[in-house]
Design goal:
Radius of gyration: 45 Å
Bound molecules: adenosine-5'-triphosphate, magnesium ion
Helix content: 40-55%
CATH superfamily of the largest domain: Histidine kinase-like ATPase, C-terminal domain
Low-confidence stretches: none
Distance between the termini: 107 Å
Mean pLDDT: 89
Strand order of the largest sheet: 2-1-5-4-3
Largest sheet: 5 strands, antiparallel
Number of strands: 12
CATH class of the largest domain: Alpha Beta
CATH architecture of the largest domain: 2-Layer Sandwich
Length: about 450
């Protein structure tokens, strides 16, 4: 009531003055005062009600930004206040959308990175993880259940956890290596970097994982390769040195021994030369493996030349070799010299390991079905070299194309093998964007099949 009396007072004073001076009857003055009060009360009530609605609207906006604006009675000032509030709400909504878009694009950027990432808070709890991390640890699409959990719930390796604690305590980056055993063993490097300023979402540490399996494998292969190559060279070299010493000492004047030893020394020197030639050839092929050969190759000619080159071994082993090539075989897309090396190695292996008086079938044909390991689609050429020797046990097959891998080391060396032949074959077929498939049953022999691309007709013409 008091809020309506104040604004009435000036009018009441004037009315009382008029009544006192007799210019207005007392009855009229009292009725006029009452009317002024009622008018003021209505006026003040509607304005206050408007402001009250605006305040409630502002409070509701904090809870629900989509709250509709209230309808007001009259006041122009209240109307202006409401318009200002609505403009603020619009601006606020725009800012909120911008912030949402920024957060989404930050997540999209993190998700597009191929390496797994975790963002951690200052108590080592997960704030966020990118798509690669969620896939690696099988955490589902958005991994919301993961948020707020200790990193130890995902990466249990103590080395990584200690490195994260160190990075948090010392505010310095730390590194650790760990292995995930399943489904296939993988070794990861974890780089843990503290942020200079804690982010709004609490992110204090970034844990970036990098798969080091391939690099470690390559390092191991390189070390193995050097060890194997040195060993392969040292064996014939030791033999040559031994014979030289014998020839200088006890067998100095023994003419028969000299001839025999020189013969062995020549064989060993030849072996070393072949080894070095094969190593050089392998490294040359590897160097060009990413550039695909583009020549037109007449496979029949290459196969016939191969058989001719091996004529001596074929005769020595009394191998029964058959070569079947259809007359209309399409031209292959490749490098004739390299393909010559492929078939030389395969046919010489078949002759070597196919047993004395063995049978070797070499066939070439066009086939519509490519093996899954061969890139591209459509028909291709299929060249098989089949022998009927001892065959190769299953467990050895996947490793045959590794350098220096032999099923029977002693036997291969005795037969003059370097253990590099199939590695060369594999690299050449890779360079040709072809495939090598090895199939064998113990006691029934082995089939080595090479798939090669056909020369496109437009080019062959
Ligand atoms: N047709 C085959 N039958 C049985 N075993 C084979 C056959 N071809 C290859 N192998 C096995 O695979 C191994 C690797 O063959 P690869 O051709 O790479 O080396 P290699 O024949 O020993 O030496 P080289 O470098 O002189 O060819 C051989 O040592 C042999 O054990
Ligand atoms: Mg061989």
């Amino acid at each position: 009531m008091a809020w309506a009396i104040g604004p009435c007072l000036p009018a009441w004073v004037v009315l009382m003055g008029l009544a006192l001076t007799g210019r207005l009857s007392w009855t009229a003055a009292v009725v006029a005062c009452a009317l002024v009060f009622v008018l003021m009360a209505v006026l003040v009530f509607t304005r206050l009600a408007d402001f009250d609605r605006i305040i409630r609207y502002a409070e509701d906006l904090l809870v629900n930004p989509e709250t509709p604006p209230p309808s007001l009675y009259t006041s122009a000032t209240a109307q202006r206040l409401l318009s200002g509030l609505m403009a603020l709400r619009k601006l606020w909504n725009e800012r909120r959308d911008d912030a949402d878009a920024l957060a989404q694009s930050r997540q999209d950027i993190l998700d597009s990175l191929p390496d797994p990432f975790f963002l951690l808070d200052k108590r080592r709890r997960i704030v966020s993880a990118n798509a690669a991390a969620r896939t690696l640890f099988d955490l589902g699409r958005n991994a919301t259940g993961l948020m707020g959990r200790d990193l130890a719930g995902v990466i249990r390796d103590p080395k990584v956890l200690e490195a994260a604690d160190f990075a948090l305590a010392q505010n310095r980056k730390a590194e650790a290596q760990f292995t995930l055993p399943a489904p296939v063993e993988h070794t990861f490097g974890a780089l843990i970097v503290p942020l200079a300023i804690t982010a709004r979402d609490g992110t204090t540490l970034i844990v970036a994982l990098h798969d080091q399996t391939e690099r470690l494998k390559m390092d191991r292969m390189r070390a193995d390769f050097v060890a194997n190559a040195s060993h392969e060279l040292r064996t014939p070299l030791a033999s040559v040195l031994g014979f030289i010493e014998t020839l200088q000492g006890p067998a100095k004047d023994d003419a028969d021994a000299r001839m025999q030893f020189l013969d062995i020394m020549l064989k060993q020197a030849n072996r070393m030369t072949r080894l070095i030639d094969d190593l050089l050839s392998l490294s040359r092929i590897e160097l060009h493996e990413h550039t695909r050969p583009t020549g037109a190759v007449d496979l029949e000619l290459v196969l016939r030349n191969t058989v001719e080159l091996l004529d001596r071994q074929i005769k020595e082993r009394r191998t029964n070799l058959s070569l079947v090539v259809p007359t209309n075989l399409p031209t292959a897309l490749g490098d004739a010299n390299e393909l010559g090396q492929v078939f030389y190695n395969l046919v010489s292996n078949a002759v070597k390991y196919g047993g004395a008086q063995g049978r070797v079938d070499v066939t070439a044909e066009i086939t519509a079905s490519r093996p899954p390991s061969m890139p591209g689609r459509g028909p291709c050429l299929k060249i098989s070299v089949r022998d009927y020797g001892e065959g190769i046990a299953r467990e050895h097959i996947p490793r045959l194309t590794e350098r220096f891998y032999r099923v029977d080391n002693a036997r291969s060396r005795e037969l003059g093998g370097t253990g590099l032949g199939l590695a060369i074959v594999k690299h050449i077929t890779n360079r040709h964007r072809g495939a090598l498939i090895i199939d064998s049953d113990m006691g029934k022999g082995a089939t080595f099949t090479v798939y090669l691309p056909i020369m496109p007709e437009a080019k062959a013409a």
